[in-house]
C-alpha cells in the first residue's frame, strides 16, 4: 500500500523532471506514512516540503503540482493538501474491499513472495556446551526465530546458524570429569546427564581443589586441540548430550532450530591459522611481544592510540575475534550469504564491530554483503535488576517454562470450557509458551524489559492470550454461522460502516508490517500490528452485527469475509512469531 503510493510519487517526479518543471538533478527519498487522524486521510507525504528549497518553489504550490500530475490509481479515492504542503491520500473503499477479498482467497493472505530472494544467514540462540539453557538465551532464541520465519515467508533462502560454544579450555576439566563418571557408570553419557549444571559445577570444583585432576584436565585441552581421537570422542559425547537438552527446549518453545543447524565455534578451527597468516601477509596484522595483533584506527585506547585487537596469543591460542572473522568469511564464501543477521546481546557490539572491520579490510566479505548486529537488551525482574531466582542464581529456561505452564493451567482451570483433558492440556501448553514468547517479542529488542507473570498471562492488553482469544472468538462466529471453511464463504466485501473501513485498512497493512520486521529485525512491530488489528476487529464486531436478525444476506456475507481475513492474518502473524492459535479456548 505505502509502496504503491511511493511508486506513484516517483513516477510523478520523473515526469515533472522530463517536462522541465523540476531540476533534473533532484534525487528525493520519497517517504509515505500513515496518518494519525482519519480526517487527514489514510496516508500522507511531506515530499513537497522536502523538494521545495532545492527546486526553488513554494511548498504548497509544488504539492499542488505533484497532485495534478499523479497518475490515476484505483487505490486512491482522492487527495487533499494540508498545511504548508502536506499531501494526504484517501484510499478507495472498493479497492479496500477487493484487497480483503483477495486475502480471503489466498493461502498467504495475499502477501507476495519477494521478486529477488536473497540467501540470508541468521545467527541466533548460541548456548554453551555442557551447560543448560537459561533465561539469558531466551531473547536471542525467540527473536532470531521470529526473523527466520518472517524472512522465509517472504521467500528468501534462510540458513539458520546456531553458533554454540563448543570449544575452549573448559573442555579439559569436562572431559576429565566425564571420564571419572564413566568409570563408575559406563552408561552415564547415554543416560543424558540429566543435570548439566551440576555436572559443570562438579567439574569446576574438582579442577580448583585437586591438582592431579587439574593437571590431567590441562593435558586433555592440549590433546583435544591437537586432534586426539579419545578426547575428540569424549568431547562429542558432551556436545551430543547438550544438544539433546537444547532440542527439548526448542521443541517445547516451538522454535525451528534442529541439530542440523548447529555451526559451533569448533567448526572454524581449521581456518584460523590460515587467516592469521593471510592477515600478516597483507600487512594488516603485526607481531607484538609474541602475539599477533591487528591495530584499528577506528578504535582508540585510553591514550588515544589505535586499539590493538589480538587474533593469536603468544602461546599460539586463538581468540573469539579470530573465530568471528573466520565465521563471517565462511558465511560469505561457503554459504553464499547476501545478508547476515547476528542476534547477540548488546554487550558484544564493539567486539563484533572490530571483527567485521578486520573482515572488510582483509577483503573477506564485500561491502555489498550486509553484516548486521541486531542487539537486544536484558530481561529484568520487577526490581529492575537482571532476572534471577529467589536465591540470586541464574534461572534455568526449563524452570521458567514449567512455571509458565503451571500458572496457565491454574488460570484456565477457572474457565468452564467443556473440553476434554487432552484438549485442555494442549491449550495450556499453547497459552503458556505463547505468553512467554510474546511478553518478550512485544517489547522492542533494543531495550531491557520487565518480566511480569501477571501481565504476560492476562487476557486483556497486548498479550498472547488476548490475541489467541481474539482468534478463537472469530472461530466461534463461524461455528454459529455454519461456516466450516473459507471456501463456504459467499459474496464479496462491501465496506459501508466506519468500523468496517477501519478493519479493512488495518488488514491491508499486513504486508507492510512483514516487510518492516524483515528489514529492521524488529518482531515487536508485528506484535503491535496484531494487537491493533485485534482492537479494530473488536470495534467492528461491536458496531457491525453478523449473526443477528435484521442483517441483510449481503451484509452478513461481507462481514463474515472480514472475519475470515482477520482470522487468517492473526493466525499467520502469530505463526511468524512462533506462537500457536487454537479453535477453542
TrEMBL record:
Statement: the UniProt record of this protein carries the keyword Nucleotide-binding: yes
Q: Which reaction does it catalyse?
A: tRNA(Arg) + L-arginine + ATP = L-arginyl-tRNA(Arg) + AMP + diphosphate
GO terms (molecular function) for this protein are: ligase activity
User: Could you tell me which residue ranges the DALR anticodon binding domain spans?
Assistant: 467-585
Q: What are the protein's UniProt keywords?
A: Aminoacyl-tRNA synthetase, ATP-binding, Cytoplasm, Ligase, Nucleotide-binding, Protein biosynthesis
**Gene3D superfamilies attached here?**
Arginyl tRNA synthetase N-terminal domain (3.30.1360.70), HUPs (3.40.50.620), Isoleucyl-tRNA Synthetase, Domain 1 (1.10.730.10)
List the InterPro entries hit by this protein, alphabetically.
aa-tRNA-synth_I_CS, Arg-tRNA-ligase, Arg-tRNA-synth_N, Arg-tRNA-synth_N_sf, ArgRS_core, DALR_anticod-bd, Rossmann-like_a/b/a_fold, tRNAsynth_Ia_anticodon-bd
Q: How does it assemble?
A: Monomer.
The family annotation for this protein states: Belongs to the class-I aminoacyl-tRNA synthetase family.
Tell me the protein's name: Arginine--tRNA ligase
Organism of derivation: Oceanisphaera marina
Q: What is the lineage of its organism?
A: Bacteria, Pseudomonadati, Pseudomonadota, Gammaproteobacteria, Aeromonadales
Amino acid at each position: 500500500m505505502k509502496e504503491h503510493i511511493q511508486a506513484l510519487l516517483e513516477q510523478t517526479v520523473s515526469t515533472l523532471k522530463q517536462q522541465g518543471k523540476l531540476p533534473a538533478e533532484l534525487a528525493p527519498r520519497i517517504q509515505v506514512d500513515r496518518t494519525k487522524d482519519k480526517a487527514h486521510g489514510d496516508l500522507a507525504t511531506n515530499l513537497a516540503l522536502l523538494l521545495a528549497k532545492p527546486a526553488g518553489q513554494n511548498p504548497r504550490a509544488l504539492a499542488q503540482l505533484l497532485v495534478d500530475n499523479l497518475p490515476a490509481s484505483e487505490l486512491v479515492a482522492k487527495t487533499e493538501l494540508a498545511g504548508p504542503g502536506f499531501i494526504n491520500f484517501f484510499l478507495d473503499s472498493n479497492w479496500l474491499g477487493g484487497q480483503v477479498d483477495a486475502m480471503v482467497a489466498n493461502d498467504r493472505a495475499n502477501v507476495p513472495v519477494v521478486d529477488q530472494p536473497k540467501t540470508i544467514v541468521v545467527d541466533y540462540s548460541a548456548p554453551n556446551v555442557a551447560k543448560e539453557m537459561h533465561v539469558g538465551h531466551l531473547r536471542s532464541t525467540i527473536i532470531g526465530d521470529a526473523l527466520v520465519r518472517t524472512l522465509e515467508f517472504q521467500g528468501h533462502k534462510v540458513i539458520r546458524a546456531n553458533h554454540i560454544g563448543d570449544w575452549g579450555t573448559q573442555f579439559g576439566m569436562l572431559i576429565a570429569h566425564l571420564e571419572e563418571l564413566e568409570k563408575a557408570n559406563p552408561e552415564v553419557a547415554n543416560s543424558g546427564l540429566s543435570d548439566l549444571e551440576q555436572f559443570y559445577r562438579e567439574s569446576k570444583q574438582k579442577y580448583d581443589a585437586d591438582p592431579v585432576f587439574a593437571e590431567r584436565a590441562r593435558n586433555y585441552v592440549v590433546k583435544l586441540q591437537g586432534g586426539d581421537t579419545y578426547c575428540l570422542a569424549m568431547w562429542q559425547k558432551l556436545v551430543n548430550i547438550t544438544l539433546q537438552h537444547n532440542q527439548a527446549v526448542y521443541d517445547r518453545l516451538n522454535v525451528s532450530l534442529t541439530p542440523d543447524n548447529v555451526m559451533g565455534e569448533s567448526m572454524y578451527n581449521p581456518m584460523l591459522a590460515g587467516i592469521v597468516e593471510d592477515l600478516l601477509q597483507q600487512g594488516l596484522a603485526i607481531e607484538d611481544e609474541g602475539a599477533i595483533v591487528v591495530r584499528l584506527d577506528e578504535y582508540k585506547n585510553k591514550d588515544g592510540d589505535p586499539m590493538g585487537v589480538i587474533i593469536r596469543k603468544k602461546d599460539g591460542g586463538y581468540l573469539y575475534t579470530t573465530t568471528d572473522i573466520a565465521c563471517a568469511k565462511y558465511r560469505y564464501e561457503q554459504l553464499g550469504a547476501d545478508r547476515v543477521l547476528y542476534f547477540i546481546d548488546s554487550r558484544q557490539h564493539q567486539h563484533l564491530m572490530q571483527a567485521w572491520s578486520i573482515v572488510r579490510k582483509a577483503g573477506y566479505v564485500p561491502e555489498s554483503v550486509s553484516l548486521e548486529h541486531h542487539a537486544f537488551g536484558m530481561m529484568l525482574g520487577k526490581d529492575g535488576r537482571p532476572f534471577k531466582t529467589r536465591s540470586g542464581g541464574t534461572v534455568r529456561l526449563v524452570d521458567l517454562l514449567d512455571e509458565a505452564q503451571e500458572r496457565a493451567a491454574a488460570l484456565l482451570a477457572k474457565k468452564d470450557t467443556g473440553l476434554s483433558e487432552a484438549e485442555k492440556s494442549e491449550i495450556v501448553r499453547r497459552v503458556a509458551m505463547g505468553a512467554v514468547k510474546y511478553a518478550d517479542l512485544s517489547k522492542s529488542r533494543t531495550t531491557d524489559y520487565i518480566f511480569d507473570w501477571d501481565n504476560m498471562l492476562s487476557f486483556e492488553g497486548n498479550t498472547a492470550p488476548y490475541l489467541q482469544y481474539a482468534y478463537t472468538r472469530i472461530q466461534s462466529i463461524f461455528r454459529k454461522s455454519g461456516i466450516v471453511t473459507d471456501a463456504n464463504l459467499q459474496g464479496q466485501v462491501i465496506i459501508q460502516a466506519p468500523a468496517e473501513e477501519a478493519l479493512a485498512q488495518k488488514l491491508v497493512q499486513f504486508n507492510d508490517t512483514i516487510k518492516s520486521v524483515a528489514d529492521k529485525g524488529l518482531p515487536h512491530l508485528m506484535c503491535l500490528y496484531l494487537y491493533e488489528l485485534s482492537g479494530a476487529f473488536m470495534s467492528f464486531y461491536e458496531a457491525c452485527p453478523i449473526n443477528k436478525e435484521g442483517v441483510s444476506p449481503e451484509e452478513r456475507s461481507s462481514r463474515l469475509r472480514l472475519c475470515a481475513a482477520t482470522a487468517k492474518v492473526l493466525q499467520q502473524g502469530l505463526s511468524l512469531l512462533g506462537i500457536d492459535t487454537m479453535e477453542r479456548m
